[in-house]
Amino acid sequence: MSGTVRDALRAATARLSGAGIDGAARDARVLMAAALAIEPDRLMLIDTDALPQAARERFEAFVESRLHRMPVARIVGERLFWGRPFRVTPDVLDPRPETEVLIAAALDGGPARTVLDLGTGSGIIAVTLLCEMPGAVALGTDISAPALAVARANAARHDVGDRFETLQADWYRGVEGAFDLIVSNPPYIAAAEMPGLAPEVRGHDPGIALTDGADGLTAYRAIAAGLPAHLNPGGRVLLETGPAQGAAVADLLAGAGLRQIAVLPDLDGRDRVVSARMPR
């Protein structure tokens, strides 16, 4: 890699593409912007400039990491979600764009006063909802103390820390009271599916955030069982699922007494979120 910013980008894109990495040009631009500590949309303004040595070294290290299938968000330390940057560390799941389906569904249902985010991880769901619902407060639970630290940092970054509480807990344990909206993106990958995951996922996301080590439905059973005690009458639950789990999760929610159950697709038409409401 030598010469201008443009030269370095072209060389990196060719290397990444040659290694079979999808979106090589996009990845190269994000990594270059991080190496230069600028926003990606500013690259076009400086693409004919010489690439400073320090930035060149950072960029080369970033590209090497990507060639070893480290996700871009983990290389640069943040992920853009619902238009906002969120800190990502090895302690939390790298947020997926598909989770925005859950956010859209939550907002379509109108504002909530109280939100419970089970297995909050990086806090992207709860923090995004607080940003979009100025009158709401949220509680995020997670079994991982380091993950909760990341969630609190993200809440503070987006100025909603005063409306976001965390609790180290296994699902509802220690949670008191009921909520208007319960959301979760739990570990839903079955143990048998783990070997087939992309290296970016299998090698870098915490296993506890990916799989229950069983059939992929363990978390949904626990969540459904706790809904009668923790979801207000008329309240909603929104659960992200794997593409083959919509019907099974819908059945669990029906068994817990919920109504108005719907399975919502992502942009590829796959089952992605199950929505339901507690009868009044």
What is the structure about, briefly put?
This protein has 280 residues and is an alpha/beta fold. Helices cover 40% and strands 19% of the residues.
Written description of the protein model:
- The protein has two domains: 5-68, Helicase, Ruva Protein, domain 3; 78-277, Vaccinia Virus protein VP39 (Rossmann fold, 3-Layer(aba) Sandwich), CATH 3.40.50.150.
- It is built from twelve helices and nine strands.
- By secondary structure, the protein is of the alpha/beta class.
- Strand 8 and strand 9 form a beta hairpin.
- Helix 6 (100-108) runs parallel beside helix 7.
Which short descriptors sum up this protein?
single chain, 280 residues, alpha/beta, Helicase, Ruva Protein, domain 3, Rossmann fold, 2 domains, seven-stranded mixed beta sheet, 9 strands, 40% helix, elongated
Question: What is the makeup of the main sheet?
Answer: 7 strands, mixed
Number of helices: 12
Structural category = alpha/beta
Low-confidence stretches: none
Shape by Cα distribution: elongated
Number of domains: 2
Q: What name does CATH use for the topology of the largest domain?
A: Rossmann fold
Q: How large is the share of residues in beta strands? A: 15-25%
Strand element count: 9
Q: Helical residue percent?
A: 40-55%
CATH superfamily grouping of the largest domain: Vaccinia Virus protein VP39
**CATH architectural category of the largest domain:** 3-Layer(aba) Sandwich
Text of the CATH class of the largest domain: Alpha Beta
The ordered H/E elements are HHHHHEEHEHEHEEHHHEHEE
Order of strands across the biggest sheet? 5-4-3-6-7-9-8
* Average of the residue pLDDT scores: 95
Query: Could you tell me how far the N terminus lies from the C terminus, measured between alpha carbons in angstroms?
Result: 64 Å
